[in-house]
Amino acid sequence: MPFSEQKEPSIITIAHGAIAVFKPAGWHSVFQGVELKSPRALNEQNTADFEDMVSWLSSHADLLPASELKDAAKAWQARFAGLQAQVQPKESERFLSELGMLYRLDRETSGIMLFALDRATMESMRAAQNAFMLKKRYILMSEASDIELAGSLPRSRSAEREVLLSALYEGNTMPIVSYFRSYGPRGGLVSCIEPSFRLKAKKKITKDRYQTDLSAAKPMQWPAAGAICIEAEIRKGFRHQIRAHCAWMGLPIIGDLQYGGGSSKRLWLEAFSVSLMDGRQYVAEWKLHDGPTAILQQ
């Protein structure tokens, strides 16, 4: 079921050289570099602030099949868990430090994550991702808003929202394309730069353009009145890409206070499917649920 209230990670499936794991909203993707057994750490912050998928997977190594990943998970605690600072491993150590993680999800985003069972699969899957052969699909709940996205050029495209929604309701897929510019504390937020404005940008922007394909929109009255359920697909991802693109188009995700969404108990964004593609042919797929279709069946 989409947007499950499940609070703990769980293994979805093990297939095609990778393990698919459910990440709850609020969990970090990578190790946060703090020893949870430290009384000082426990006193200063809630342990939930440190919950991450790498630590969880390492503590559940016995659930994994015999593989390089299982060996790495067993070795992980001894090598990294006692460190007091964020680990910045060499590329050759990344399989161990991130346990074959193929991509990350924002802390606020729930959904499916993939971990390669061996180094060869990790390298081939990352190569496929760089070649736009790894398709990731998300379900989101948005709402109409005329907010402006700080630092974006133009600052908002909400004037195009009704045309966009009409096309989506008719069953069309609509691409949102931009460059990105990081800003804010530690560059933690992003603004969108429309390609025709690229030369007008006064600050550094990404070298590449990023595309989010929106589809399968449906008006809803849940989780808030006026909500709109939308499917989003990306082949190449950037930090907060879907969140920023939706806000830029005047459709911020509900619960996304950083990008103008209304207050809610969670960020209503979830990764539900990852597919390895060869052209238009599916080579493999890992799925959490059926996305918007599952919502309509509830």
Q: What does the model show?
A:
It is a single chain. By secondary structure, the chain is an alpha+beta fold. It is built from eight helices and ten strands. Strands 1, 2, 3, 4, 5, 6, 7, 8, 9 and 10 form a ten-stranded mixed β-sheet that branches. The model is unreliable at 35-39 (pLDDT under 50).
Sum up the structure in keywords:
298 residues, 22% helix, alpha+beta, ten-stranded mixed β-sheet
Mean pLDDT: 90
Q: What string, H for helix and E for strand, traces the elements in order?
A: EEHHHHEHEHEEEEHEEH
Q: N- to C-terminal separation?
A: 8 Å
Strand content: 25-35%
Q: Based on CA inertia axes, which overall geometry fits?
A: globular
- Overall helicity: 10-25%
Q: What is the alpha-carbon Rg in Å?
A: 19 Å
Number of beta strands = 10
Largest beta-sheet characterization: 10 strands, mixed
Total DSSP helices: 8
Flag low-confidence runs.
35-39
> Structural class of the helices, strands and pairings?
alpha+beta
